[in-house]
Protein: Hydroxysteroid dehydrogenase-like protein 2
Amino acid sequence: FSPSTFRKLAGCTLFITGASRGIGKAIALKAAKDGANIVIAAKTAEPHPTLPGTIYTAAAEIEAAGGKALPCVVNVREEQQIISAVEKAVKTFGGIDILVNNASAISLTGTLETDTKKVNLMMDVNVRGTYLTSKTCLPHLRKSRNPHILNLSPPMNLNPMWFKNHCAYTISKYGMSMCVLGMAEEFRGEVAVNALWPKTAIHTAAMDMLGGSGIEKQCRKTDILADAAYCILTKPKSFTGNFIIDEDLLREEGVKDFDVYAIAPGASQAFKEEKLSGSQHEGPHGAKADTASAAAQPLSPVAETFRVIQGAMSEEYVRTTQGVFQFELSGDEGGTWYIDLKTKGGSAGFGKPPVMADVVMSMSSADFVKMFTGKLKPTLAFMSGKLRIKGNMALAIKLEKMLTQLNSKL
Structure:
């Protein structure tokens, strides 16, 4: 898809953290084609031993693409470096119109495997760095005609599955998302503040380091995020407080062919969750993928069933059921899933329920799908030993009633 013939970002000044490579650089190059000014606020001044690109090589590419570049050595952990770069940007280009908070640190490790040094790095770069860079740019953004802040962070989903494998990392990325929530409201009408996250893994050099060889076949190019970012940044400042998934936005904008973004066209973009234990993402920054994109497409039968259940939730079901059901499934897509029909609004999904389960049901995932699509009656499954139930039997019977109402939807 091509942006309209007139160049929407011509003359705009973008301050992009972590723009020496990966996603940050892709967004910079897309804007540079319009003739934008790009402040490359990144810490790589000397070549990195394993990752290509410095702020100076990125500057050369931006100039070649038609933009103006200002490389600034910025480690977002150092407030003074942020302040100096912002002052230099305003002096060079006369102001700042757009801030992209892309710099990020990652460690996809469990609580006991994450060094304190790594915890500090992720909190300092992802949360504090994003907050301070936004704070420093805001006085200048408020003077712009169409100011935007864009954070590369995920939609906030409090399902424990996004936390259990890398708690510190998820907390730090959600910290960036909370900056969007708060600042979008605080500066509503003055500055647009949004978040962007990929639906699939994105291929960058850092991704190769994290994922090992062969990983790129399941990834998309950074172009998809650059195109989605461009769509957001050219919208009016009234477009604010949104958590955007790249593919969903581009579909709305009329993009039909997503194979152009694939590293290996036709290869499955779906991510096996166990493969990279949830979200992957890169060090200095780039490769953002999070299974919080939870969108491994096409969804497996069990996941699809839960998606439909989640969609069918109603206050009525919650009021009349008042129960929490946990499913221990064996076989393909085994694991723990839940339906919460007790908490306001109700919820369903992968992982343990948010509150203690009243009923625990164990069965194979194949029988589970049959049961939920009306091909296997719960009573029959129970009598024949395919379904084991622990806990409140009366509630288990209530669930059967709900199933008969749901079957029309499944």
